[in-house]
Write the structure tokens for this entry.
Amino acid sequence: AQKVTQAQTEISVVEKEDVTLDCVYETRDTTYYLFWYKQPPSGELVFLIRRNSFDEQNEISGRYSWNFQKSTSSFNFTITASQVVDSAVYFCALSEALRGSYIPTFGRGTSLIVHP
Amino acid sequence: EAQVTQNPRYLITVTGKKLTVTCSQNMNHEYMSWYRQDPGLGLRQIYYSMNVEVTDKGDVPEGYKVSRKEKRNFPLILESPSPNQTSLYFCASSQGSHYGYTFGSGTRLTIV
């Protein structure tokens, strides 16, 4: 079973629509970290956010917001008023201490296409 | 500028010919890692290193070697490359094991 599941392989929206990318994780640790990364068409991977398991407060950064819910083991990412520049593959990742250190495991990614 | 530098960006080579992909970071990070990215499989970890002379296998280490003789460098070595190692490779570093990674620009490796 995947530790990080991004069930949406591809999402297509029209500019200005809101879109939510789902991330469901699986862990037995009580201390863990969750991340989101963006990979635009140019190919580089860009770190967006980190959240630890003790902080369930939602976070907002401009048009981006993240909803962390331990009860459902989810860490969803919402883009408000999407723009063409948001088109990218987005990866969710989980770091657990199972191997003595926190080494992230990535989901398979969600490709977001924003049409003008 | 804080960055992770990988070289080469692109490489086409033949089966069995040893190759090295270099990775260097200028942020004094302790943690470094190699990932490969394949369509539909996301990012899979090959090897990671928690400090100089400390390395460990990730999820897909077969056919790869690494070394960490200096803090800034973490080369990936393919002793006898095979076509199933054709992939996009990323090196990454982090200031600590639970911080976000800074990734290199990637190396597109094709083995024929």
